[in-house]
């Protein structure tokens, strides 16, 4: 296919070659950095391992990209152009324009297959999105993690004794929270898709902050279980909602890196709340309250402020950033065009639904029975169990080892700091290698020797500092959750399916957390030999599930290649134009792995 007269070199970049000039990423991970924090989309993709939609032309079956003939080089260049901008093919562009019009897609007016931009323009826009969207997503996730994670600090202050509870009650409370969280995941996603995440997320935060504040009045087993249930029901679905909102602004290659920043909030919040707890727990006795009561009150009020601010910080989409309290919006008209078209060129399916369009029962059922995503749900179920009981019992174990309540909260900080570093490095490694399965599996390879040591090391518990060091190394593991969430989103290949599949993946994670709460039981303490034996088995199972997932997606892609390559170019074009198949079931889609 030839370029129109006087058109710059193929989108997205003017004056760039097939590989672009930004293949070396900026290693500054700060979202407020003055340069882009990730490789730009000009980096060459590997369709067989990173996921892609196949264009029907040119015929790539017999291309010899190493050939020096001008004919082959021209075809190779054209193929690279279509890889970066599938809408250069008029058949593809016409198909998706029709899809966007029928879906009443909110950004359809700025869809433009021919628009081009420079690498510098895109970097500047990415920095702006990082500062406005990603940064506030991190703040909101901080609000979530404060109110679902401060229970461990309360334990260090003797909350269980104050309320007349034991560790079994604590386990039951965690299970109630997780089951409630799990049950709310899918309904929350359906609400978010109907109302828009820009409306639903702030409502969620305000509602759970009220429950979090009420925990300062806990008076026994019943009130403890009730607040755990309410927090789970309201907080459930928040993470998939945030991922959906961020996907409106980022490409599939950029999203995992941003989600890695997002999930560093887990550890960052742990550090901040540990330092806050050191001060707030010293307030025990003021006004007759325990330190943990003051902690719930103060941290709940912080969450409430974040929730109220979120109503004004979350635009509905790239074309809806201007409003009465933000008259200039986030972007200029040209920047809006770049933001929308760069996302659509990466994943055309992001425009097949309106951002306030409800998911129909038919679409919901189609996503539920999409067995090609089940391997990712299986990973979510088992991959995070091995480290969870150790994390839940960290403060209780440190108190049992003889550390004071205040020192206990400070001792959790080192593992949290290292956890942030390993998470960012793991996600960056996945991006550099363009590999998801084997890189994400490094989490299991990190935790396995630590779990084996917990089971068989004779100095466990007797050696206080050795036990603390072992648990800290385990909890410094490289967290693969950001990779898995973005991976699930990519393989869903449809806005409606993406919303539901994100919820289903998170539900599988929460179900795994429920299982994790029954690993360390009261009869087995303090060494938890039976529990750690189970963790070793589950860790090995998780490695097996990762390997199976890799093999499965390689096999499925080969299946699709065989059928797709057997079609003529006319049949391929007709399929793209007329097929009613959506999501990952399309013949022209290849799974990321």
UniProtKB/TrEMBL annotation:
Spans traversing the lipid bilayer: 230-249, 261-282, 294-316, 373-394, 406-426, 438-457, 469-488, 500-523, 535-555
Region (Disordered): 1-70
Biased composition (Polar residues): 49-65
Organism encoding this protein: Neurospora hispaniola
Entry GO MF terms: transmembrane transporter activity
Record's compositionally biased regions (Low complexity): 30-41
Signal peptide location: none
Annotated membrane topology: Multi-pass membrane protein
Record-linked PANTHER family: MAJOR FACILITATOR SUPERFAMILY (MFS) PROFILE DOMAIN-CONTAINING PROTEIN, PERMEASE-RELATED
Residue spans of biased composition, Pro residues class: 1-13
GO cellular component terms given for this protein: membrane
The keyword Membrane is annotated on this UniProt entry: yes
UniProt xrefs under SUPFAM superfamilies: MFS general substrate transporter (SSF103473)
Coiled-coil segments: none
Name of a matching Pfam family: MFS_1
Subcellular location: Membrane
Name this polypeptide is given: Major facilitator superfamily domain-containing protein
Keywords on record: Membrane, Transmembrane, Transmembrane helix, Transport
